[in-house]
Design a protein that fits this description.
Bound molecules: iron/sulfur cluster
Largest sheet: 5 strands, mixed
CATH superfamily of the largest domain: Alpha-helical ferredoxin
Shape: elongated
Order of helices and strands: EEHEEEEEHHHHHHHHHH
Helix content: 25-40%
Number of helices: 11
CATH architecture of the largest domain: Orthogonal Bundle
Number of domains: 2
Strand content: 5-15%
Radius of gyration: 23 Å
Strand order of the largest sheet: 2-1-5-3-4
Length: 245
């Protein structure tokens, strides 16, 4: 079977090229290992646990983000690096933005509440805690594609996880930190939800963050300047909206 791999060598400043390899393995990570061992030792890719736990082998296959270790390939599949990050070499991308995003979203325990934790409390943060930092969601996000200042799906999902964590003494700084270039910039397109290998639903988490934010007195800045063009002055509709019933 043949697979196509988009390759790039930063040191040589060469453009990305697509190279075709013949492989016998059907699991993508095993096929990459096969190429490296028996055909081209210079092929570069990331892998760690080989069992879908570490998130390091995320790539795109035919344009869709996936973990190489969990992917069965077909004839002529195209394997590419994740989008929206700088390519270091072949299908290895720079993922150093993670630390920056965690700092920006304040999504960690700043002061421990010392509260005792029940099974129900754990359930509340269980799904979001399963994020493996694979970056698939950032690769798929159309907002992050055009605005690298956008906090993006993983950071926002992580923010919700810590807002709901009883160990956090005061979550207001986390809520405040996701307002600007965060929850209100998301188009709720679901692309991140579609590609997450952990079954996390960043879009739903962002909606929850919007609800929590409104309850805490924040508002959508896109609506604060919104002018409908309709004059709701005193008698337009035959009643005074401030008059009560
Ligand atoms: S739902 Fe929001 S965060 Fe997720 S991919 Fe779409 S714009 Fe990005
Ligand atoms: S939210 Fe899902 S897709 Fe995004 S980094 Fe975490 S595990 Fe990967």
């Amino acid at each position: 079977m043949n697979i196509n791999i988009k390759r790039f060598n930063k040191q040589n400043h060469k453009n990305q090229i697509i190279q075709t390899f013949s492989v016998t393995k059907r699991n993508l990570l095993q096929a990459l290992n096969e190429i490296k061992v028996s055909c081209d030792a210079s092929l570069s890719y990331r892998c760690g646990c080989k069992s879908g736990v570490c998130g390091s082998c995320a790539v795109r296959v035919n344009g869709v983000e996936t973990l190489a270790c969990k992917t069965i390939i077909k004839e002529n599949d195209l394997v590419e690096p994740l989008k929206n990050r700088e390519v270091i070499r072949d299908i290895v991308v720079d993922v150093s933005h993670e630390t920056l995003l965690i700092k920006k979203s304040n999504a960690y325990i700043q002061e421990n509440s010392q509260a005792s934790i029940s099974q129900n409390d754990i359930k509340l943060i269980d799904t979001q805690s399963n994020c493996i930092l694979c970056n698939a969601c950032y690769s798929s996000c159309p907002v992050y594609e055009v605005n690298k200042e956008f906090l993006g799906p993983f950071a926002l999902t992580r923010a919700l996880r810590y807002i709901n964590d009883k160990k956090v003494l005061d979550n207001s700084s986390i809520v405040a930190s996701v307002q600007d270039k965060g929850i209100w910039d998301c188009t709720l397109c679901s692309a991140c939800t579609f590609v997450c290998p952990q079954g996390i639903d960043p879009k739903a988490d962002i909606l929850q963050l919007q609800n929590i934010s409104v309850q805490k007195g924040h508002q959508n800045p896109n609506f604060s300047n919104f002018d409908s063009g309709i004059d709701f002055g005193n008698d337009d509709f035959g009643f005074n909206p401030n008059g009560g019933f």
